[in-house]
Automatic annotation (TrEMBL):
PANTHER family recorded: 6-PHOSPHOFRUCTO 2-KINASE_FRUCTOSE 2,6-BISPHOSPHATASE LONG FORM, 6-PHOSPHOFRUCTO-2-KINASE/FRUCTOSE-2,6-BISPHOSPHATASE
Stated name of the protein: fructose-2,6-bisphosphate 2-phosphatase
The EC number(s) this enzyme carries: 3.1.3.46
Residue numbers binding substrate: R229, H230, G231, E232, S233, I234, Y235, N236, R280
Organism: Lachancea lanzarotensis
Domain 6-phosphofructo-2-kinase stretches: 5-222
Length: 448
């Protein structure tokens, strides 16, 4: 049975129709929206018309995008039609909730065509324009992602840049920006120079407003996010879950070493440290020379009646619950406590704030870290609760245009393993289940 969240309970279907000249971040924004909504269990998918076009024209030069080039126009029409057909099928066959039509959609005529199709299929269209006249930024975007695109495989970067600028000039000939007067009946958002100015028109549903709020918070300044579990705690040594215990002597050693690890990774950047309200994260952060904030939302997953028990005790006392949790760890809610899904929902403001901020170090707990990591790394729900996040390890995330780079920095201070694989009540890293996970953070020193 599908599980509905507050956001998709209304049986809504939304098509976010991207609008914008090339190299304005449309694909970047589309991919972020899909990642954010998927993380919130809202079924979403991006339909990138460029990928469809590449099937008919793998490496076109700028003149292909000249509006008067009739042959090319046919190929481009075919590509967008195929993308829209696939999108409609996805809505119908896979109960999709939010589709993103990632294309330039530069003319009012094209947008009206999409609008009509959406209305005929009971899909709410929301136009999202990224408008930018900052030439330096556009050149940076071209260098960042366009010269390495499959369109320019094997082409000298300077030649590719010149051709891409010509492609933009061709689009500019016909481009019609969204307009407050002419498009006043449409649901639309215009992001002007990232989010220096945002124009919002007729945004009516809750889900649309969530998407708008999210894109308003995005920025593209280079930044890092550091993540660490608290140091080894007394409860970790006793194999107990939950509680509010202090650090073990080795955990305190990690807390002493953490400032050095962070400095090596962050240089003299001014960080802000976020901890949970629990003693073990605050003790871990106590020697860090940065501003610190406590978030209740970063507290560990609440194990309800099982708080303070070992997994062996849980298996003995609540055998059915123990089994049910292994079968669907993401959805299983501890009696009187939380599920992973509950944690994700309470972490939403953290993610939103992380998108707004620059350099943040988060010291929190295993389940919470798994959820945050899953958002940045696009880890599917069935895998994220099984990821191994070791103690005494600093993880650095570097969000880039289409992916997040990960570096793992080990403190070289021994700690127990708190990892529990499927079908066992024993904890330990040697469990074969976690090694199978594509996203296990245990074996590699850095991972892309
Ligand atoms: N709102 C924005 N305005 C301008 N640039 C942005 C914005 N958001 C992200 N970017 C930057 O845009 C680059 C990614 O460009 P992207 O491929 O998404 O452009 P596009 O508009 O989809 O281009 P195309 O039409 O050629 O597919 C990244 O370098 C990213 O930092």
């Amino acid at each position: 049975m599908p599980v509905y969240t507050v956001s998709n309970v209304q049986n809504l279907r939304i098509c976010v129709v991207m609008v914008g000249l090339p190299a304005r971040g449309k694909s970047f924004i589309s991919q972020k929206i899909v990642r954010y909504l998927s993380w919130l269990s809202i079924k979403s998918k991006c339909f990138n018309v460029g990928n469809y076009r590449r099937q008919g024209a793998p490496r076109p030069s700028a003149e292909f995008f000249d509006a008067s080039n009739e042959e090319a126009y046919k190929i481009r029409e075919h590509a967008v039609t195929q993308a829209v057909i696939d999108m409609m099928n996805w809505f119908a066959d896979e109960q999709g909730v939010v589709a993103i039509l990632d294309a330039t959609n530069s003319t009012r005529q094209r947008r009206n065509w999409v609008l009509k199709l959406c209305r005929e299929n009971s899909i709410e269209p929301m136009f999202l324009e990224s408008w930018c006249d900052d030439n330096d930024l556009i050149l940076r975007n071209i260098a960042d992602v366009k010269t390495s695109s499959p369109d320019y495989k094997g082409v000298d970067p300077d030649v590719a840049t010149a051709d891409f600028l010509e492609r933009i000039a061709n689009y500019e000939q016909v481009y019609q920006a969204l307009d407050e007067a002419q498009d006043r009946d449409l649901t639309f958002v215009r992001l002007i120079n990232i989010a220096q100015q945002v124009i919002i028109n007729k945004v009516e549903t809750y889900l649309e407003s969530r998407i708008v709020f999210y894109v308003m918070n995005l920025h593209i300044k280079p930044r890092y996010i550091w993540l660490s579990r608290h140091g080894e705690s007394i409860y970790n040594l006793e194999k107990k879950i939950g509680g509010d215990s202090s650090l073990s002597p080795r955990g305190l050693q990690y807390a002493k070493k953490l400032p050095e690890l962070v400095r090596e990774s962050a240089g003299n950047r001014d960080l802000t440290v976020w901890t949970s309200t629990l003693i073990r994260t605050q003790e871990t952060a106590q020697d860090l020379p940065y501003k610190q904030l406590q978030w209740k939302a970063l507290d560990e997953l609440d194990a309800g009646v099982c708080d303070g028990m070992t997994y062996e005790e849980i298996e003995e006392t609540f055998p059915e619950d123990f089994k049910a949790r292994d079968e669907d760890k993401y959805e299983y809610r501890y009696r009187g406590g939380e599920s992973y899904r509950d944690v994700v929902i309470r972490l939403e403001p953290i993610i939103m704030e992380l998108e707004r901020q620059e350099n943040i170090l988060i010291i929190t707990h295993q389940a919470v870290l798994r959820c945050i990591y899953a958002y940045f790394m696009n880890v599917p729900q069935e895998e994220s609760p099984w990821m191994s996040i070791p103690l005494h390890t600093l993880i650095r995330l570097e969000p880039r245009a289409y992916a997040t780079h990960v570096t793992k920095i080990k403190a070289d201070i021994p700690a127990v393993s708190t990892y529990k694989g499927k079908g066992t009540s024993q904890v330990g890293e040697s469990d074969s289940n976690q090694r199978k996970s594509a996203h296990a953070l245990i074996d590699s020193d850095s991972k892309k």
